[in-house]
Amino acid sequence: MARTKNKAKSDEYFDEVFPLGYTPTVQSKFNIEKIGVDLKCKNPNQKTFINLICDNKITIAAGPAGTGKTYLACAQALKLLKTDTRFKRIILVKSVTVLEGEEVGFLKGDLKEKMYPFTVSFLDNFHKLIGEGLTQIMLDMGMIQVLPLAYIRGRSIDNAIIIVDEAQNISKKNMRSTLTRIGTDTKMIITGDTKQIDMKNKDISSLELVVQLFAGKPNIGTMEFEKKDIVRDPIVQLIEEVFDEWEDSQKKN
């Protein structure tokens, strides 16, 4: 197959070069080992997070927006997929919870189309890491799968890296069910921000509880990022600090 002049960025990752616009099938000669993942930790807590993922079956991390929790989880999942033959796929899991006071109404389409608005932030991380073309190819081949939380209940998931995002919107009951889905040769990474709970009853949120319950337990790593760990635009840290001060003042009144 001839190489096109304006080849897609993902072409180099294949044993044969596909023309632009080609959608590969499962039979395509995809070589995961050729994927380059640029994973650079920007502070000690990010390094701790990566080490916890490597050393444990389950890693639970809470912390403010902009600390790189989801990005690092996706990057490390890609690295594990390319270097450890036990892992065959990355499963992205998210609770389908809309923002407080915001209703999206009925969503048309199949499961993939219905989930897209809730998981686009997930996929943005893969776009940054390996590009949109390669991300789509891995989705087409089932190497990256996107599922709502309800679709993993009752399953025993083997040979996978499961990333559960925005875990602050998972109830205690559903978190128990989620954690027990982990099967043979599987890692689970759970991330979230306890200050961004979108559930109507915030008391049933599970993230803060599981960070406390599983601290120090074997094969489970837990940690909390701090405002000082924010690596997004510096204004994000200012926003967090201003809201924290406002919330503290409200509690005193």
Would you kindly provide a written description of the structure presented here, covering whatever features stand out?
- It is a single chain.
- With 253 residues, the chain is α/β, with parallel strands linked by helices.
- It has a single domain (41-252), classed as P-loop containing nucleotide triphosphate hydrolases (Rossmann fold, 3-Layer(aba) Sandwich), CATH 3.40.50.
- It contains 7 helices and 6 strands.
- It has helices at residues 44-55, 69-83, 111-130, 132-140, 172-179, 207-213, 234-252, and strands spanning 58-62, 89-94, 144-148, 160-165, 187-192, 220-224.
- A 6-stranded parallel beta sheet has the order 3-2-4-5-1-6, with helices on both faces.
- β4, α5 and β5 form a beta-alpha-beta unit.
- α1 (44-55) packs across α2 and α3 crosses α4.
- The longest helix has 20 residues, at 111-130.
- The radius of gyration is 19 Å and the shape is globular.
- The N and C termini lie far apart (71 Å).
Compute the gyration radius: what is it? 19 Å
Unreliable runs, pLDDT <50, ≥5 residues?
A: 1-24, 98-107
CATH architecture: 3-Layer(aba) Sandwich
CATH level-1 class = Alpha Beta
The order of strands across the largest sheet is: 3-2-4-5-1-6
The CA-CA distance between the termini, in Å, is 71 Å
Question: What letter string, H or E per element, gives the SSE order?
Answer: HEHEHHEEHEHEH
Give the name of the CATH superfamily: P-loop containing nucleotide triphosphate hydrolases
Strand content: 5-15%
Helix content: 25-40%
CATH topology: Rossmann fold
Mind summarizing the main beta sheet?
A: 6 strands, parallel
> What is the count of distinct domains?
1
Topology, number of strands: 6
